[in-house]
Write a structure and sequence with these properties.
238 residues, alpha/beta, Purple Acid Phosphatase, chain A, domain 2, 6-stranded mixed beta sheet, 5-stranded mixed beta sheet, 11 strands, 20% strand
Length: 238
């Protein structure tokens, strides 16, 4: 059983959210997490479950292509709807794959893009203009269709965070995917409790205004999932 503790907000009755932190191409850990979520849902069904992947699905790890193949095929757990968010690594990948900006290509290569290209079996030395031709069109469409945020009740799910003092409906896509400070140290009200990844920690972090679930899966840490239901929060780790 998942050990639960009081959450900083309350979901509407009948809802449960499984919010999974940064995967970074760690397909085996993602499959193990999905299995753990499926087992929990089978043991404790609810009418309205939701699986949220908080972005940074790709780069650095061994199988970005496998992760995208899995998620682009549809909801990976029967009976649970899925929302997939765009992280800064998906944004970097798409900008580099557009092939128009040498700086964007270099930035992606410096941040794990080479491992992603290798997982798609892009030939070493292939010019950037040819990279998209080696990636299945379904994968590219999936990446382009990722959403920047999802809101449910008092919770806002994003990859990186939000800018304090800016209404949620006016947040920039750049901040939603990239921000660290002043978001991480802000102690006030964001307009919702923000559930995010992006900034790895050894342990998940629960504050009154945000919940961080990136525990460095690609750096030897666990892949973490926050489980939110009613006025409670618990965690799955694999």
């Amino acid at each position: 059983m998942i050990p639960f503790e009081p959450a900083p907000a309350r979901l509407p009755d009948g809802h449960r959210v499984y919010a999974v932190g940064d995967v970074h191409g760690c397909l085996d850990k993602l499959k193990a997490m999905h299995a753990a979520i499926a087992a929990d849902f089978a043991a404790r069904p609810v009418p309205s479950p939701l699986l949220v992947h908080l972005g940074d699905l790709v780069d650095r790890g061994p199988d970005s292509a496998g992760v995208i193949a899995l998620l682009s095929a549809g909801s990976p757990i029967p009976g649970i709807g899925t929302v997939n968010l765009m992280g800064n690594h998906e944004h970097m990948a798409l900008t580099a794959l557009a092939g128009q900006d040498r700086g964007a290509i270099a930035l992606w290569m410096d941040n794990g893009g080479a491992a992603a290209l290798d997982s798609w079996r892009v030939p070493p030395g292939a010019p950037a203009a040819e990279w998209p031709s080696h990636i299945p069109s379904r994968h590219l469409i999936f990446l382009r269709d990722l959403v920047p945020m999802h809101r449910l009740g008092p919770y806002l799910f994003v990859h990186a965070g939000v800018r304090p003092g800016v209404p949620i409906e006016r947040q920039s896509r750049e901040d939603l995917m990239w921000i660290r400070e002043p978001f991480l140290s802000f102690d006030g009200d964001y307009g919702a409790v923000v559930v995010h990844g992006h900034t790895p920690r050894r342990e998940a972090e629960v504050r009154h205004n945000r919940i961080s679930v990136d525990t460095g899966a690609v750096m030897g840490g666990d892949l973490t999932c926050a489980v939110l239901e009613s006025a409670w929060i618990g965690f799955l780790r694999v």
